[in-house]
Amino acid sequence: MSSRSKAGSRARRAKRRERSGISALALAIVGVLLPGLGYLLAGRRRLGTVLVTLSLTLYGAAAYLALARRDDVITWALNPDVLLLMVVALGVIALYWVTVLVTSYKMLRPLTAGPGARLAGSAVIGLVCFGMASSTALGAQTLMAQRQLVEKVFSGEQSKSQTRPKINNTKDPWAQFPRLNILLLGADDGEGRDNTRTDSVMIASIDTRTGKTALISLARNWMRMPFPDGTALHKEFPTGFWDPNGLKEQPNYYLDAMYRMVPAEHRDLIGPSDNPGADVLKMSVSEALGLKLHYYVQVNLAGFAQLVEALGGITVNINYKVPVGGNDDKKIPPSRYLDPGPNRHLNGTDALWFARGRYKVQGADVARQARQRCTVKAIVERATPQNVLANYLDLAKAGESLIRTDIPQTILPAFVTLGQRIKNGAITNIDLDKKKNYPSGRNPNYAAMRQLIQQHLNPPTKPAPPKPTAPKPTAPATRKPTPKPTTPDLAEACAYNPTG
Length: 500
Hints:
Layout: H1 2-16, H2 21-30, H3 37-41, H4 45-68, H5 70-77, H6 80-108, H7 115-153, E1 179-187, E2 198-207, E3 213-217, H8 232-236, H9 255-266, H10 276-289, E4 295-300, H11 304-310, E5 314-318, E6 322-324, E7 336-338, E8 341-346, H12 348-356, H13 364-382, H14 385-390, H15 392-402, E9 403-405, H16 412-424, E10 427-429, H17 434-437, H18 446-457, H19 490-493
Parallel strand pairs: 1-4, 3-10
Antiparallel strand pairs: 1-2, 2-3, 4-9, 5-8, 6-7
C-alpha cells in the first residue's frame, strides 16, 4: 500500500510538470509573493505547507508590528544594536526568499524543456533574484546609514555635558518637560576651520502636548551676556561677558564670538564637555532670557546646503533682493542676488544665502533673523515622511557631517512623536522689540526680554466678565482699534509682501 501511494504521488508530480515552461516560470514568480506556494503547486505538500505557514507568519508579524507596535518599531529603529540585528535578519529573509524561488522553479519546470527554454527560464529567475538581492542591499544600506547616524550624531551614555538634564522616564520624557526649549545654533565650523562663530542663535520653545512652537532669535552683536549665579563663569564675569575697561564695541565679546572665545580663554571654568562652546551658550542664553534650555542642535552652515539638497530644496517667499555673498566691512559686493517672488524654490546654496545674506540689507541683523525663521519653517514643511524616506540615504549622510547635538539616544523615539506634533502645530515668532530692548548691542535689556517671552508663553487668563448692570447714559465713545498681535504666526510673517 505504501509503495503504491509513493508511486501515485510521483505520477501526480510528473503530470504537473507537463505544463509549459512559461506557465511554470509564471507560477514560480507568483510564488515570490507567498514563498512555499510553488512547492504546493509542484506537489510537495508537506514542505509547501510548512513554508507557506512560515511565510504567512512573517507577513502577520510584520503587519502586527506596523499596526499595533509602531512605537516599539520606532524605538528599535533608533537603537544601534537592534539596527545591526535588523540587517542580519534582512539578509536571512532575503536568502530564504531566493532559495525558495529557485527551488520552486526547478520543481515546476517541465521535464521535457529543451536547453533554450531552460536557459531563458534560468535567466528570468536570475533577474528576479538580482532584483530581490538589490532591494535587500538597499534596505541593509539604509539600516546601516541609520545606525551610523544615531551613533555619530546623538549622544550616548558616555557623553559629557554641563547642561543636559537628567531624564527620569525615557518612554515619556514630555511628562517631565511640558515645555521643551532647544537652542538652535548655526555655526561656520568645519574641518581645518578656526575662529568658529555662531552666525545664527535661536531658541525653539515647544509645547510638548500640542506641538505649538515659538521661535526666538538673538542678535549676534549682543554684549554683556550673563552667566548663572554660582557658576565659575559668573564669578569671572559678574556683570556679563565683556571687558569693562575696553572699547565700546568689542567683537570678541559679542554673542556670536562666545562659542569660540570662552572655551579658548577660560576652558577650566566650564568643566567636562563634548562641546564646551555649546554648553557656554546654553548657560548664558538661558540666564539672559529666563528659559531653561534643555538641549542644543548645532548645524554647520558650510554644509547646510547639503541638507537642503537632500530634501530636494525648499520653497520660500522672497520680499526683497537678498545678496549672495558680499562683505560690508571690506566693501566686497555680492556675486548676485536672489530676486523677489512668491513661492521661490531654492536649491541648497541659494537657501544658505537666503538665511545668511546681509550685504547692505536694511536692518541687516533683524532682517536676517526673520529669514532664518522662515528657513526653519520651510524645512519643517519640506520634511514630510514621504520625502524623508525617499531621500533618506542622502539625508543620513548629510546629517553625519552637519549636525551636533546633546540629545541622548534614549529619548529619540519620543522626539519622533514630538516632531509630528510640531508639523501639525502652529509656529510663531516672539519679537523681542529691538528698538526698545536692544537699540545697540552693548547693553541689551534682558529683564524686559524675559518679560516679553513669559507674556507670550504664559499669557494671563481672561478674567470672568462682570455681571451686567443697567447702562448709564453717556456720550458716545470712540472705539479704539484692536491692537494687532506682536507675535504673528510665521505663515503671516513669511508671506509674500514685497517691499520694493
